[in-house]
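Title: Prediction job returns without error message
Component: structure pipeline
Severity: low
Priority: P3
Assignee: unassigned

Description:
Job completed but the reporter wants confirmation the result is attached to the right record. Sequence as submitted:
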Amino acid sequence: VSFQSNVDDPLEKRVTSVGRVHPHVEVKVVDEEGAAVPIGEQGELWTRGYSVMQRYWGDEEQTDAAIDADGWMKTGDLATIDAEGFCNITGRVKDMIVRGGENIYPREIEEFLYNHPAVSQVQVFGLPDERFGEISAVWIIKKPGTEPTEAEIIDFCKGKIAHYKVPALVRFVDEIPMTVTGKPQKFVMRDLMMEELGITAAKTA
Protein backbone atom coordinates (compact mmCIF):
# COMPACT_ATOMS: atom_id res chain seq x y z
CA VAL A 1 0.00 0.00 0.00
CA SER A 2 1.53 3.30 -1.11
CA PHE A 3 -1.46 5.68 -1.03
CA GLN A 4 -4.26 6.67 1.29
CA SER A 5 -7.02 9.26 1.53
CA ASN A 6 -7.54 11.54 4.52
CA VAL A 7 -10.88 12.37 6.10
CA ASP A 8 -10.45 16.03 5.18
CA ASP A 9 -9.74 15.33 1.49
CA PRO A 10 -12.50 16.46 -0.91
CA LEU A 11 -15.22 13.81 -1.24
CA GLU A 12 -14.75 13.60 -5.00
CA LYS A 13 -11.06 12.76 -4.55
CA ARG A 14 -11.81 10.18 -1.86
CA VAL A 15 -14.21 8.27 -4.06
CA THR A 16 -12.43 8.61 -7.42
CA SER A 17 -8.79 8.06 -6.44
CA VAL A 18 -6.65 5.90 -4.15
CA GLY A 19 -5.45 9.02 -2.36
CA ARG A 20 -1.99 10.54 -2.02
CA VAL A 21 1.32 8.88 -1.32
CA HIS A 22 2.17 7.80 2.22
CA PRO A 23 4.90 9.65 4.14
CA HIS A 24 8.39 8.21 3.58
CA VAL A 25 7.27 6.40 0.41
CA GLU A 26 8.15 7.44 -3.15
CA VAL A 27 6.04 6.86 -6.25
CA LYS A 28 6.32 7.73 -9.91
CA VAL A 29 4.45 7.03 -13.12
CA VAL A 30 6.71 5.97 -15.98
CA ASP A 31 6.57 5.22 -19.69
CA GLU A 32 7.69 2.00 -21.37
CA GLU A 33 11.33 3.10 -21.12
CA GLY A 34 11.10 3.77 -17.38
CA ALA A 35 11.14 7.57 -17.73
CA ALA A 36 8.73 9.62 -15.60
CA VAL A 37 5.73 10.94 -17.54
CA PRO A 38 4.28 14.47 -17.15
CA ILE A 39 1.66 15.13 -14.47
CA GLY A 40 -1.71 13.70 -15.42
CA GLU A 41 -0.41 11.33 -18.09
CA GLN A 42 -0.89 7.59 -17.87
CA GLY A 43 1.90 5.10 -17.34
CA GLU A 44 3.02 2.28 -15.07
CA LEU A 45 3.08 3.01 -11.35
CA TRP A 46 6.41 2.37 -9.59
CA THR A 47 6.91 2.66 -5.83
CA ARG A 48 9.85 2.67 -3.43
CA GLY A 49 10.13 2.87 0.35
CA TYR A 50 10.00 1.07 3.68
CA SER A 51 6.71 -0.66 2.82
CA VAL A 52 7.97 -2.20 -0.42
CA MET A 53 9.13 -5.81 -0.41
CA GLN A 54 12.81 -6.51 -0.92
CA ARG A 55 12.57 -9.64 -3.06
CA TYR A 56 10.65 -12.77 -3.98
CA TRP A 57 11.78 -15.58 -1.70
CA GLY A 58 14.08 -17.92 -3.62
CA ASP A 59 13.27 -16.40 -7.01
CA GLU A 60 15.94 -14.00 -8.21
CA GLU A 61 14.64 -13.95 -11.78
CA GLN A 62 11.21 -12.72 -10.71
CA THR A 63 12.81 -10.29 -8.27
CA ASP A 64 14.95 -8.77 -11.02
CA ALA A 65 11.87 -8.41 -13.24
CA ALA A 66 9.83 -6.67 -10.54
CA ILE A 67 12.39 -4.49 -8.72
CA ASP A 68 15.12 -2.44 -10.38
CA ALA A 69 18.64 -1.77 -9.09
CA ASP A 70 17.50 1.42 -7.34
CA GLY A 71 14.77 -0.34 -5.38
CA TRP A 72 11.79 0.76 -7.48
CA MET A 73 9.06 -1.88 -7.57
CA LYS A 74 7.11 -2.11 -10.82
CA THR A 75 3.53 -2.57 -9.66
CA GLY A 76 2.05 -3.57 -13.00
CA ASP A 77 -0.71 -1.00 -12.45
CA LEU A 78 -1.50 1.71 -14.97
CA ALA A 79 -2.09 5.00 -13.20
CA THR A 80 -2.22 8.77 -13.38
CA ILE A 81 -1.22 11.27 -10.68
CA ASP A 82 -2.75 14.74 -10.80
CA ALA A 83 -1.23 18.08 -9.83
CA GLU A 84 -2.49 17.68 -6.26
CA GLY A 85 -0.84 14.29 -5.91
CA PHE A 86 -3.99 12.15 -6.06
CA CYS A 87 -3.49 8.83 -7.84
CA ASN A 88 -6.04 7.07 -10.02
CA ILE A 89 -5.49 3.43 -10.99
CA THR A 90 -6.62 3.06 -14.61
CA GLY A 91 -5.84 -0.56 -15.41
CA ARG A 92 -3.16 -3.23 -15.60
CA VAL A 93 -0.11 -3.20 -17.87
CA LYS A 94 -0.67 -6.86 -18.77
CA ASP A 95 -4.17 -6.03 -20.03
CA MET A 96 -3.01 -3.26 -22.37
CA ILE A 97 -3.62 -4.01 -26.05
CA VAL A 98 -1.05 -2.93 -28.65
CA ARG A 99 -2.73 -2.62 -32.06
CA GLY A 100 -0.42 -1.63 -34.88
CA GLY A 101 1.84 0.27 -32.47
CA GLU A 102 -1.06 2.08 -30.76
CA ASN A 103 -1.72 1.43 -27.07
CA ILE A 104 -5.32 0.60 -26.16
CA TYR A 105 -6.39 0.63 -22.52
CA PRO A 106 -9.37 -1.71 -21.99
CA ARG A 107 -10.80 0.27 -19.09
CA GLU A 108 -11.17 3.36 -21.29
CA ILE A 109 -13.30 1.47 -23.80
CA GLU A 110 -15.25 -0.30 -21.05
CA GLU A 111 -16.17 3.00 -19.40
CA PHE A 112 -17.28 4.37 -22.76
CA LEU A 113 -19.45 1.34 -23.55
CA TYR A 114 -21.25 1.62 -20.22
CA ASN A 115 -22.92 4.67 -21.80
CA HIS A 116 -24.78 2.37 -24.18
CA PRO A 117 -28.32 1.79 -22.90
CA ALA A 118 -28.19 -1.97 -23.52
CA VAL A 119 -24.88 -2.69 -21.76
CA SER A 120 -25.08 -4.18 -18.27
CA GLN A 121 -21.51 -5.48 -17.96
CA VAL A 122 -18.58 -5.25 -20.36
CA GLN A 123 -15.02 -6.52 -20.60
CA VAL A 124 -12.45 -5.62 -23.26
CA PHE A 125 -9.39 -7.75 -24.00
CA GLY A 126 -6.83 -8.34 -26.74
CA LEU A 127 -6.55 -11.11 -29.31
CA PRO A 128 -3.55 -11.99 -31.50
CA ASP A 129 -3.78 -10.68 -35.05
CA GLU A 130 -1.45 -11.27 -37.98
CA ARG A 131 -1.83 -7.76 -39.42
CA PHE A 132 -1.94 -5.53 -36.33
CA GLY A 133 -0.27 -7.71 -33.70
CA GLU A 134 -3.37 -7.46 -31.53
CA ILE A 135 -7.00 -6.44 -31.92
CA SER A 136 -9.61 -5.66 -29.28
CA ALA A 137 -12.56 -7.90 -28.48
CA VAL A 138 -15.54 -7.15 -26.26
CA TRP A 139 -17.74 -9.36 -24.13
CA ILE A 140 -21.05 -7.81 -23.14
CA ILE A 141 -23.83 -8.87 -20.80
CA LYS A 142 -27.01 -7.24 -22.08
CA LYS A 143 -29.55 -5.48 -19.91
CA PRO A 144 -32.85 -7.38 -19.60
CA GLY A 145 -35.27 -6.64 -22.42
CA THR A 146 -32.63 -5.34 -24.84
CA GLU A 147 -31.35 -6.97 -28.03
CA PRO A 148 -28.31 -5.00 -29.27
CA THR A 149 -26.33 -6.33 -32.21
CA GLU A 150 -22.61 -6.47 -32.85
CA ALA A 151 -22.98 -3.87 -35.61
CA GLU A 152 -24.92 -1.57 -33.27
CA ILE A 153 -22.16 -1.67 -30.65
CA ILE A 154 -19.45 -0.99 -33.23
CA ASP A 155 -21.45 1.87 -34.78
CA PHE A 156 -21.96 3.32 -31.29
CA CYS A 157 -18.17 3.58 -30.97
CA LYS A 158 -17.37 4.97 -34.40
CA GLY A 159 -16.70 8.69 -34.42
CA LYS A 160 -16.78 8.89 -30.63
CA ILE A 161 -13.52 7.14 -29.79
CA ALA A 162 -10.31 6.86 -31.83
CA HIS A 163 -10.71 4.53 -34.82
CA TYR A 164 -8.09 2.09 -33.54
CA LYS A 165 -9.99 1.74 -30.25
CA VAL A 166 -13.21 0.62 -31.94
CA PRO A 167 -13.67 -3.08 -31.05
CA ALA A 168 -12.98 -5.53 -33.85
CA LEU A 169 -15.16 -8.26 -32.33
CA VAL A 170 -18.22 -8.17 -30.08
CA ARG A 171 -19.79 -11.12 -28.29
CA PHE A 172 -22.88 -11.17 -26.09
CA VAL A 173 -22.53 -13.55 -23.16
CA ASP A 174 -24.52 -14.65 -20.13
CA GLU A 175 -21.67 -14.36 -17.65
CA ILE A 176 -18.13 -13.03 -17.22
CA PRO A 177 -15.45 -15.39 -15.84
CA MET A 178 -14.38 -14.16 -12.41
CA THR A 179 -11.84 -15.03 -9.74
CA VAL A 180 -13.03 -16.00 -6.26
CA THR A 181 -12.42 -12.37 -5.24
CA GLY A 182 -14.67 -11.04 -8.01
CA LYS A 183 -12.05 -9.87 -10.50
CA PRO A 184 -12.69 -10.46 -14.23
CA GLN A 185 -10.44 -13.11 -15.79
CA LYS A 186 -9.52 -11.54 -19.10
CA PHE A 187 -7.08 -14.35 -19.90
CA VAL A 188 -9.96 -16.86 -19.75
CA MET A 189 -12.04 -14.73 -22.13
CA ARG A 190 -9.03 -14.41 -24.43
CA ASP A 191 -8.41 -18.18 -24.44
CA LEU A 192 -12.07 -18.97 -25.14
CA MET A 193 -12.20 -16.50 -28.02
CA MET A 194 -8.95 -17.80 -29.48
CA GLU A 195 -10.37 -21.32 -29.35
CA GLU A 196 -13.62 -20.20 -30.98
CA LEU A 197 -11.80 -18.39 -33.79
CA GLY A 198 -9.05 -20.97 -34.24
CA ILE A 199 -6.35 -18.45 -33.34
CA THR A 200 -3.00 -19.47 -31.90
CA ALA A 201 -0.53 -17.15 -30.18
CA ALA A 202 2.11 -18.28 -32.66
CA LYS A 203 0.37 -16.24 -35.38
CA THR A 204 1.76 -13.04 -33.90
CA ALA A 205 5.37 -14.28 -33.95
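Comment from assignee: result matches the submitted record. DSSP finds five helices and eleven strands in the chain.
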